[in-house]
Amino acid sequence: MAVTRTFSIIKPDATRRNQTGAVTKMLEEAGLRVVASKRIQLSKEQAEGFYAVHKDRPFYGELCNFMTSGPVVVQVLEGEDAVKRNRDIMGATNPADAAPGTIRKELAESIEANSVHGSDSEENAATEIAFFFNDDEIVG
Known about the structure:
Strand content: 15-25%
CATH superfamily: Nucleoside diphosphate kinase-like domain
Shape: globular
Radius of gyration: 14 Å
Oligomer: single chain
Order of helices and strands: EHHEHHEHHEH
Distance between the termini: 18 Å
């Protein structure tokens, strides 16, 4: 398998509860390496731009409000088959459906406040990484 990159966000519900280290530890234990990371406060414009793909969905406004409700940690992760590996360790979107030992099963509060976001494809990972990081910020 090839070493690839993916994008991750530790969401406001997790940063509010000081779970940044716990999430990162789970990612690293799953074989992913953090090659870029920064804690930021998303503006409304950033959230709307990042989630524009969901603009016509009924949850769009609530999602943007939630993602601007507190700081987030945006990360670039690297590892073998990074997108799949990250999605596996995140678990199902609904924590009630997530497997034991996954981030969402162990740390999420609800389906809305599910602690993490991760890219769903290598193409989206590249787009999402470029949204938040310049090439010189990614060091690995």
